[in-house]
Amino acid sequence: MQRASLLATSLPALRRGLQLALNAMAAVGVLWIFAIMLLIVADVVGRNFLAAPIIGVAEIAARSVVAIVFLLLPAAALNGTLIRSDFLMRGLQRFSPRSVRLLDSLFALAGAVIFGLVSLAAWPDTHDAWVSSEFFGVRGVWTLPTFPFHLLVVLGASVTSLACIFSAVETLLNRPTEEHF
């Protein structure tokens, strides 16, 4: 029992540190969105007004979307905005606060399993991209390595799984406040 209370008292500090790291990942994703937006605008202007498109914009944008999603997922999972419906939780809160905590924890654990499986499934492609020095684009015109994009999927899914586990433990150990729901 003492161990559980020690864990419950250290959770806020651990959460702040984890939230800071995951917010930094999300900030990189947001900046990446802004950079892609500028690149697309520059390509459209170059294509339509200067007859000089930027080579590789479509490929960069396509790969970037997936990478950006996996940069933003961990922060959303830790905040509880990824797998929770406030409407459902408020309705259940009227009947049993304990059932809300249990359901929230089960959803978070399901998310941890799913993102852990995504990470495991993406790892072989990441390894192959590293070993074979895989590139995408048109050889001789424009190419970009695929490894960093694959690695972001693996890391993002792994950290999202960790955030879901943390969220489940935190929900089970803490009494949620009214503003939490």
Structure description:
With 181 residues, the chain is mostly helical. Helix 3 (86-95) runs antiparallel to helix 4 (97-131) and helix 4 packs antiparallel against helix 5. 79% of the residues lie in helices and 4% in strands. Strands 1-2 form a two-stranded antiparallel sheet. It has one domain. The chain contains 5 helices and 2 strands. The chain starts with a helix and ends in an 8-residue tail after the last helix. The longest helix has 48 residues, at 2-49.
Which features does this protein show?
single chain, 181 residues, mainly alpha, disordered C terminus
The pLDDT mean sits at: 84
Placed side by side, the strands forming the largest sheet appear as 1-2
Structural class: mainly alpha
**Helix/strand order, N-terminal first:** HHHHEEH
**Domain tally:** 1
Give the distance, in angstroms, between the N- and C-terminal Cα atoms: 27 Å
The portion of residues forming beta strands comes to under 5%
- Number of contiguous helices: 5
Q: How much helix is in the residues?
A: over 70%
How many strands, what sense, and barrel or not for the largest sheet?
Answer: 2 strands, antiparallel
Low-pLDDT stretches: 177-181
Count of distinct strands: 2
Shape field:
elongated
Which value, in Å, is the CA radius of gyration? 21 Å
